[in-house]
Design a protein that fits this description.
By secondary structure, the chain is an alpha/beta fold. Helix content is 33%, strand content 18%. It has an 8-stranded parallel sheet with strand order 1-8-7-6-5-4-3-2. The longest helix is centred in the C-terminal third of the chain and has 15 residues.
């Protein structure tokens, strides 16, 4: 059976002028994680936040911080983000360097490790790493900016990864990030995902609890059973 559905609001769509309040609101609304997108202006064209902002988010919630490093050289910053309060640290399979060593370092720091792949990257690129991670993040938009439309081409990849994880008896969450809304949450869960990252679909509405509940209901309705 697919693991329990988790909703992870992405602060990329939050009001950074009132970030603590925004994080507190989605925490009270019943979110499971807080998703933090870190962009270095090199691996992706956008430039966002660093460990100092993660520290501020950490002070505003008891929820696990799911930190997605869109960086060319994530190995240089693993310790800093761990110390800042990250609970899950994700790196991209597309970066250069020893991916396995980076995942091992994340575990050495006492954090959960996540391997991330872009929309065009096949599932086969990470299958040899599945027993070294706690979570896989499938990007359903091209990374770099919020507010993009979901790319349906990833459904097959989500299903392939879920089938592989289950066949190997691994306890690995499958997370999807990009264009998630009430319109596709059911299909994403049906394909095998259990962690849904949502930015505008939550922070773009004043009633955050209603939005979190709606996404969870839609995803739970589509949730795949073994």
């Amino acid at each position: 059976m697919t693991p329990a559905i988790k909703i992870a609001p992405s602060i990329l769509s939050a009001d950074f002028g009132a970030l603590a309040k925004e994080v507190e609101e989605v925490t009270a609304a019943g979110a499971d994680y807080i998703h933090v997108d870190v962009m270095d202006g090199h691996f992706v064209p956008n430039l966002t936040i660093g460990p100092v902002v993660v520290e501020a988010v950490r002070r505003s919630t008891h929820l696990p911080l799911d930190v997605h490093l869109m960086m060319t050289e994530p190995s240089r910053y693993l310790d800093a983000f761990a110390q800042a309060g990250a609970d899950v640290i994700g790196i991209h399979v597309e970066v250069e360097g020893d991916i396995g060593a980076m995942l091992d370092r994340i575990h050495e720091l006492g954090k959960k490790a996540c391997i991330t792949l872009n929309p065009e990257t096949p599932a086969s690129a990470i299958e040899h790493l599945l027993d070294r991670v706690d979570q896989v993040l499938v990007m359903s938009v091209n990374p770099g900016f919020g507010g993009q439309k979901f790319l349906p081409l990833v459904y097959g990849k989500i299903e392939q990864l879920r089938n592989t994880v289950d066949a190997r008896g691994l306890k690995v969450d499958i997370e999807v990030d990009g264009g998630i809304s009430e319109d596709n949450a059911s299909q994403v869960a049906a394909a095998g995902a259990n962690v849904l990252v949502a930015g505008a679909a939550i922070f773009g509405h004043p009633d955050r609890k209603t939005r979190v509940d709606l996404l969870r209901q839609r995803a739970s309705a589509g949730r795949r059973h073994a």
